[in-house]
């Protein structure tokens, strides 16, 4: 890496074949949800081994629709991790339900399964476990609790397409699984999302609600619900489809880069990610905790000045302004791990356009910034 170059946190690896795929759609004149969206749904469903995949406009829309088709609304509670991107809790608010926060494990940054049962009440209708930063969470315990207490599981696998627990793909063992194609994901459509399920009735409702509430039969549009315009365009689908052809190569590349970070930072005071045995991490983010004596925000600014685009990882959602004003929860007492991960968390650049020399230089700059 040349010293005068800036390494951003993420650059999507858009290649000529991806541009050609989009150009083909543009030249066809058929731009909205069509055959490319259908092909994307079929290929993702086959890859994950699920019956239904429903593409929509973005990852937040997936969670919003999931809650709606499960009939969740005012008076209901939905359990969510205290550490995630705010959309995980925002969608609960948007349907009029109440998010109930659970602290995380610092080792994995995922929801602590041992703390969930204490938060279950008669109003609990669902849980949204997040596979944070590309590492699957402990779905075995969560699904057992859901069965015992009869509530739904909506897996937020926005960062985790391809992640596994044993042979089980993240997003496939709950009632619904949600994925994102945001530019920081392994494959991207700019904006875009996708829901998967094995439930025929839920899949049918999702397809209707994403398209203005239209149930199209016998060539006629029948408006059967007050739906949304949450459609994915064929432009977006073509872009994702093209990248999906090299998806395993992308994941392998990210795994190799993660190993370089582990090697270069193993003798530092940074707390490195933990990958449990028999788990497959997709490395949407390489998220570390900075040493206690380091001010994380100052470090971010210093790294950017030195040419490295690092950033914080995820929000301690109940500590954000809206949630503090509404619920006034003492995060230091209730969610100490989520608060620490938010305040000390640092995401390092990791994407397939980087090479080993780039990452070693990132680590040199990082060490210099924290030892000075």
Automatic annotation (TrEMBL):
Q: What GO molecular function terms would the record report? A: glutamine-scyllo-inositol transaminase activity; pyridoxal phosphate binding
User: CDD domains attached here?
Assistant: AHBA_syn
Catalytic residues (UniProt) = 185 (proton acceptor)
Keywords assigned by UniProt?
Aminotransferase, Pyridoxal phosphate, Transferase
Cite the Pfam families for this sequence. DegT_DnrJ_EryC1 (PF01041)
Q: Where in this protein does the record say N6-(pyridoxal phosphate)lysine is found?
A: 185
Transferase among keywords? yes
Broad enzyme group: transferase
Q: Which InterPro entries match?
A: DegT/StrS_aminotransferase, PyrdxlP-dep_Trfase, PyrdxlP-dep_Trfase_major, PyrdxlP-dep_Trfase_small
Q: Which GO terms describe its biological process?
A: polysaccharide biosynthetic process
On whether RNA-binding is a keyword of this UniProt record, the answer is no
- The protein's Enzyme Commission number: 2.6.1.50
Q: Which family does it belong to?
A: Belongs to the DegT/DnrJ/EryC1 family.
Q: What is this protein called?
A: Glutamine--scyllo-inositol transaminase
**Source organism phylogeny:** Bacteria, Pseudomonadati, Bacteroidota, Flavobacteriia, Flavobacteriales
């Amino acid at each position: 890496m040349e010293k005068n170059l800036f390494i951003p946190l993420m650059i999507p690896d858009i290649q000529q074949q991806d541009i050609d795929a989009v150009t083909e759609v543009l030249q066809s004149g058929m731009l909205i949800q069509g055959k490319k969206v259908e092909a994307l749904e079929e290929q993702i469903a086959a890859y994950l081994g699920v019956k239904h995949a429903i593409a929509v406009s973005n990852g937040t829309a997936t969670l919003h629709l999931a809650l709606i088709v499960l009939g969740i609304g005012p008076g209901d509670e939905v359990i969510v991790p205290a550490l995630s991107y705010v959309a995980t809790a925002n969608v609960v608010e948007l349907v009029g339900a109440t998010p109930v926060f659970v602290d995380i494990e610092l080792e994995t940054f995922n929801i602590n399964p041992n703390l969930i049962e204490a938060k279950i009440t008669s109003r609990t209708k669902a849980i949204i476990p997040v596979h944070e930063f590309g590492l699957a969470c402990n779905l075995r315990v969560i699904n057992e609790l859901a069965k015992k207490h009869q509530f739904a599981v909506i897996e937020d696998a926005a960062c985790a397409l391809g992640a596994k627990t044993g042979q089980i793909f993240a997003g496939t063992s709950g009632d619904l699984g949600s994925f994102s194609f945001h530019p920081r994901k392994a494959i991207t459509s700019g904006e875009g999302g996708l829901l998967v399920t094995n439930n025929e009735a839920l899949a049918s409702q999702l397809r209707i609600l994403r398209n203005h509430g239209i149930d199209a039969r016998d060539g006629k549009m029948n408006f059967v619900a007050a739906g949304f315009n949450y459609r994915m365009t064929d432009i977006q689908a073509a872009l994702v489809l093209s990248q999906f052809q090299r998806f395993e190569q992308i994941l392998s590349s990210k795994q190799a880069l993660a190993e370089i970070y582990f090697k270069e930072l193993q003798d530092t005071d940074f707390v490195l990610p933990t990958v449990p045995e028999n788990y497959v991490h997709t490395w949407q983010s390489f998220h570390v905790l900075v040493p206690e004596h380091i001010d994380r925000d100052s470090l971010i600014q210093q790294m950017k000045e030195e040419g490295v685009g690092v950033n914080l990882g995820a929000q301690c959602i109940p500590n954000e302004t809206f949630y503090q004003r509404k619920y006034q929860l003492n995060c230091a007492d209730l969610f100490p791990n989520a608060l620490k991960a938010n305040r000390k968390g640092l995401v390092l650049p990791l994407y397939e356009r980087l090479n080993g020399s780039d990452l070693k230089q990132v680590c040199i700059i990082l060490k210099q910034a924290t030892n000075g």
